[in-house]
Amino acid sequence: MIALAVLLSVQVADAQTKSPEAVKKAIEKAEAASLDPKKNVKPATWLKLADAYVQAYSVPAGSAWVGASKQELQLIMAGEQPLSVEVVELNGAPYTKESYATRDYYFNNNGILEIIQVTKPIVEDALDGALNAYVNAYKVDVKQSKLKDINSGLDNIARKYLDEGMNEYVFGNLAEASVKFEKAADAAATAPLSKVDTTALYNAGFTAWMVQDYERAKTFFEKCLAVGYYYEGGEVYAKLADIYGKLGDKAKTVETLEAAFVQFPQSQSILIGLINYYLENNENPARLFELIAMAKQNEPNNASLYYVEGNIYNELRQAEKDEAKAAEYLAKAVEAYDACEGVNAEYEFGHIGKGVMFYNIALELQDKAANELDDKKYMAIVEKQEEALKNALAPFEKSYAVSKDSSLKVNIAEYLKNIYYRFISDGAEYEAGYNKYSEVVKTGVAQ
Predict the structure, then answer these.
(1) pLDDT for 253-311, tens place per residue?
(2) pLDDT the model gives residue 9
């Protein structure tokens, strides 16, 4: 679920006091009243119809609620037993599925109910019927005496659609998930509630993007930008740029990426998108450094801009086939990463960027050595690999010393442990380093 924007909310079970037959009769009665010219001018008539549809939606789900434990439900459900129980896998995670006459319950490994799927609805599209009833209630509520009830109802419908979208996402029905998220956004935007649900908009776009429905995805991501919602450091920009590229609009692709880079220079996905665009279209990536220079003028004391500059050179190095040019990019990356310390001595990411770069170079050389059959050439590659690992040691040590983030320090310790272990037979200092950082990784407590 990480990829989606997740709205955290406490879900409470709807009151379950009516039988399916009683609900059907209530809908028939409320619909008849809505056709009566004397009654359909009253907001209460439409609110009763909306309530009947909500009941029709909720009753088949039973008395359970998402977040309930099995122990709680055993008390609430008065001994009702499932028709079948099986272990299934959804989105890569195991669930216990309990099937009842009208619904399936999915429990996680901790025995907490995560998904309720109605398998036998009382009426189809009950939420659509409820939404339409609330719309009509607002139309006839000339005195606006029922605004609170109407807004509460619309908000409830929007949340239920959002929950359905999340469920469809977990089940792998991405196109249907996009439809449900769109309905959630539309319900929230319905007057008089008139709210912009950015979570629903983003998720509708993201799931459409995943099934390569790019025109549909573009619509939702553009709506996100229009209301100033960028998600996770500019991810909306990155997705839109990818969509424009897929649709063949190069001008909009680079325009979107550059606008995003100015606003979110530290976003790796935006940075890589820009670099790929310039390389794939044989355009000069010097534009990236023009944008960085502009950002530096606006924020001369922002060390992260030099870190981003180092990332750019490192990405260009990896994409460069000419060894001399790649070495030039490597030197410039080191220079940029080192510049971070001069701007802000407490900024650890310049050291981390430099350390990770050399560590990854060592991994690249390790792969290269594994495929080399000539012993002499093999040993030459191994020497370069060891040199790269030792070049990573100092920046990782500095970042560990400077950082005040304990969880980050544990991550840095993982790199240091691996490097010191590689040279553990070369002397006591390497053995001591390995023992120190191995303990940090083991305990999760930075020294």
Answers:
(1) 989 988 888 888 777 778 778 777 876 777 777 887 887 887 788 788 889 889 989 99
(2) 41
Q: At a CB cut-off of 8 Å and minimum separation 6, what does 120 contact? A: 60, 101, 102, 103
**pLDDT above 60 (res 35):** yes
pTM for the full predicted model: 0.70
> CA–CA separation, 361 vs 317, rounded Å?
10
Dump pLDDT digits (tens) for 151-181.
999 999 999 999 999 999 999 999 999 999 9
Q: Average pLDDT of 237-255?
A: 92
Q: How far apart, in whole angstroms, are the C-alpha atoms of residue 383 and residue 389? A: 10
Distance CA 447, CA 437 (A): 9
For the chain, how long is the longest CA-to-CA vector? Answer: 96
| Start-to-end Cα distance in the chain | 34
pLDDT computed for residue 3 by the predictor: 60
- Residues 208 and 237: beta-carbon distance below 8 Å: no
Structure token pair of residue 114? 């995560």
- Sign of the dihedral through C-alpha 118, 124, 128, 130: negative
